[in-house]
Specification:
Two copies of one chain form a homodimer. The first copy, chain A, is α/β, with parallel strands linked by helices and 527 residues long. Among the domains of chain A are: 118-295, Rossmann fold; 496-527, no CATH class. Chain A contains 18 helices and 15 strands. In chain A, the strands form four sheets. Chain A has a six-stranded mixed sheet with strand order 1-2-15-12-10-11, sandwiched between helices. The first copy, chain A, has a five-stranded parallel sheet with strand order 6-5-7-8-9, sandwiched between helices. The first copy, chain A, has a two-stranded antiparallel sheet with strand order 3-4. The radius of gyration of chain A is 24 Å and the shape is globular. Chains A and B meet through helix 3, helix 7, helix 8, helix 9 and strand 10 of A and helix 3, helix 7, helix 8, helix 9 and helix 13 of B.
């Protein structure tokens, strides 16, 4: 039986404070000791990926103490409860079942009289069948022509994850002859978002997927109408161009406005829904269902590793523990993700959502205030671009920002050019290696303006190539890392009450029920 | 004569500490007092924009003390020295002249025997003439056909600013019949970046602008060759498709590889180069030189406001002072920019560069270590998207993150849809107003999970529409804000020594001159 306790009640946590500042990163990462750490502090992940934490401010003793914390906090047991169908989302009294969309780690989960694993699988089969017919020209537009473009209309979890994954795999798919349809995304209630996308596509050959679990997301319903107007302006029947991804109980579920509807449910939070029909429909249409299935396989393989109780064999758990060490023992308030892969350009934006929305909480899962820091601010941009942007502060700023890099040995297109004796891909990875050492070791200089203090921690996830499996494994890693951190902080990582007040006040503005500052700002903005 | 002194030597700075925690933001932003603040704490900007700081943790007393600090720190005089041509970039012993690209605030600046204002103007005239010929079909491809696409090849300052501005004005230009050419950007040394862009364009009808001040930026030269190979693979003469933006002394300046070369110089830092030929060439080709001239007019008008010594009439200076108050008195380590405008989606990424690269420093302009925090980590994404992503942490996380919003009364396309009695644009702005009040005032609740503490400060810049002038005014505001913060922190905001060590180590990796951790990471990454 697991016990849900606050982080500061664990003995293993208290034991960690004595280790603070004991690792001189610049020293241990220099010379032979550095080489040793690189080969030793490396945990295999699924699909040939590896998590390397050599350049983090840890040593064997700290890793042991973190393992003690994992044990005392029952991280593995808590995950087991989750995937076996416990009500982990206590605030909303819901199961948390996104892992079931990609594999089954434990028992059958029966909820509302339904085997949920079978339900999710069924939806993916329905999507695969539908996508197959679209690709084969069996489902066509009113002129009997094939659809060439798919547009996802959704916001938050219905947008960021699917968009990030589409961008991550677009080049790979193009290079491997798997790019079946171009995908676009409409999310913002800003009318220029929809107008801009609609201007860039051929509406007559486009399918639109309206994604809203509740069927009531105001941004999404508004953009749905925006798109319908545009379709009808072309003299077309909107219902022949639109699909729905929603829950079976939503107003969108059985509705003749849509060609088809695919289902998710309340046990999958928006930000964890990329592996459900929310990501499945758009990605199966864009790349074919086989590619999406390979993505799910990568997630499932990494989920399996995450179920291991030993953090030294469980990269997501270890990454989570080191992150909590940095946040709560070292006191770093920010973290950044820096993929050395242009294809992962929007991966940080998705994980910013998963991380900050899951663990940006000030009360524990019982609603009690807590006395330690929880989720940190999170941002990221691809390298080497970032090197020419904000890395100045990472190297010489007055705050230390712990980092995580991602790199791949091979590019996706495998088209390259050699300049000054090396390819672009080699230059890319040379820069990544150089940054990690520069940040950790620093460099002295007579001129203090050219001095690098070092001692700036980072880790790296390395893979062979950004394939569908690798992409899935990466996403699973971060989802599970964030889950384990939520367990450690004892927060409910699966609700988001913090977004409610803004919604309530926005409704008041729209109903012209305002006074004071709300009235003032509304008038200022011309509302 | 100005005196360059550390922030903590100013009496006015020390006086600010007694004000810490004296503003109960939730209280003063409630009821009539909130309405009063919204109308009172508002400073006009250029082109109908306004900077509103009602929801910041300040009061009249703090504003007076900040004005004293501005005075004691001689902010206006320092800016005057800068625009009159003093060697403000002490590290590299350079003038800082980006303001001159859009107008002349003070005396003629003569450097290297040249009137620099005239030089920058001349370049813009040359660009305008060239762009005019391209648009008129006088400069055409080898088949005598018009160019339809322009691709910027550059990284950092040669990429982020021009890209952000292109995206900011693309819809406006399309809606107003000013979109002359589609623009694309290649930046990352990751070979998939160039491959992906090249696959998406019609190379035979594309112009490529290679942008590198020194003519030696490795990423950019590598991508130039990548593109040349692709052009030649189509059987075309690359030199008929390529332009250069560089300094007159660079190897790219007089080179038959290019159709034309336009010039900038060492007195314009990369991150401040959007208003020089770096932004001018691509934006004049994309939108026409008249639109770029209007953008520069907006910058010039805002620069003029920034020259005012009274921060209550100088929005960039006031914004800078409030930011330093939040960083150094209140101790907030992060800041975020949240434009309620999808067109500004990459504006935060550009300002992340300008801010973190300029002020992420640990030594003052004399190379002495300083004992206070300088530049904060900076991130941002457009709203309402962010509301469905990381806003949970902004409202209920354990850290306070000071925010700045941006909003416009009108959309760019002016195509809208009414759902439940309001347009999308109205919904967008209703959400913005609601967020500011929710963050400031919070809301009590019996259930602590639904409780909002409030006291989370934000400001907003409001405009009529995101026009070229408004976009220019916005960029100038932030550039000058960051400059004033650099003056306050007494750092050199115009060098970037922190990026050098990584470059040196990357070169060692490429020369196979590695050992220890550098060797380890290189091998791990397949280098």
């Amino acid at each position: 039986m697991v016990e849900w306790k606050n982080l500061d009640t664990y003995k293993a946590y208290q034991n960690l404070f004595e280790t603070k500042g004991k690792v001189d990163l610049a020293a241990v990462m220099s010379g032979e000791s550095g080489a040793e750490r690189v080969s030793k502090y490396c945990v295999p992940m699924a699909d040939g990926l590896a998590y390397n934490f050599a350049a983090k401010e840890v040593n064997d003793d700290i890793i042991e103490k973190l393992a003690d914390l994992a044990d005392e906090a029952q991280l593995a047991q808590k995950f087991e409860e989750l995937y076996n169908g416990a009500v982990i989302n206590t605030g909303e009294k819901r199961l948390v079942l996104h892992h079931l969309t990609r594999g089954q780690l434990g028992n059958d989960v029966i909820a509302d009289g339904v085997n949920k694993g079978e339900f999710y699988k069924k939806q993916q089969e329905r999507i695969a069948e539908f996508a197959g017919k679209v690709h084969a020209g069996e489902i066509v537009n009113e002129n009997g022509e094939k659809f060439t473009t798919v547009v996802q209309i959704g916001i938050g979890g219905s947008d960021l994850g699917p968009r990030a994954i589409y961008l991550a795999l677009k080049n790979w798919a193009a290079a491997n002859g798997m790019l079946k349809m171009r995908a676009e995304f409409i999310s913002n209630v800003d009318p220029d978002d929809a107008a801009c996308v609609l201007e860039s596509i051929d509406i007559a050959h486009s399918l639109f997927i309206v994604v809203s679990k509740s069927g009531t997301t105001l941004e999404t319903l508004t953009n749905e109408l925006f798109v319908k107007n545009a379709i009808e302006k072309e003299g077309l029947d909107a219902s022949k161009h639109m699909l729905a991804v929603t829950s079976e109980t939503s107003p969108m579920a059985k509705n003749s406005d849509y060609l088809a509807a695919f289902f998710m449910d309340d046990y999958i939070g928006g930000r964890y829904s990329s592996s459900s029909a929310v990501g499945g429909a758009v990605l199966s249409l864009a790349f074919g269902p086989e590619v999406f299935a390979r993505f799910l396989d990568g997630m499932a393989a990494e989920d399996k590793l995450s179920a291991c109780a030993d953090p030294k064999k469980n990269p997501a758990m270890l990454d989570a523990l080191i992150g909590v060490y940095e946040r709560n023992i070292m006191g770093y308030p920010i973290t950044a993700l820096l993929p050395y892969s242009q294809a992962l350009s929007r991966f940080p934006a998705h994980l910013q959502q998963v991380d900050m929305e899951s663990n940006g909480k000030s009360v524990n899962r019982f609603g009690e205030e807590i006395n330690y820091k929880t989720g940190a601010a999170f941002f990221g941009e691809p390298g080497t671009n970032g090197q020419h942007s904000f890395y100045q502060l990472l190297h010489q700023g007055t705050d230390i920002i712990p980092l995580q890099f991602i790199g791949f040995k091979d590019s996706q297109y495998n088209i390259d050019v050699e300049v000054e004796g090396s390819t672009s891909q080699t230059k890319l990875n040379a820069n990544l290696a150089a940054q990690m050492v520069a940040l950790a070791c620093g460099k002295d200089d007579e001129n203090p303006n050219k001095r690098f203090e070092g001692n700036r921690p980072s880790s790296v996830i390395v893979g062979e190539q950004l394939t569908p499996e690798a992409c899935g494994a990466l996403l699973s890693h971060y989802e599970n890392k964030i889950m384990f951190q939520g367990f450690l902080w004892n927060v409910n990582s699966f609700d988001q009450e913090g977004v409610q007040l803004g919604k309530v006040l926005a409704k008041r503005v729209l109903a012209h029920d305002t006074d004071g500052a709300l009235k003032g700002f509304s008038e200022l903005l011309g509302v």
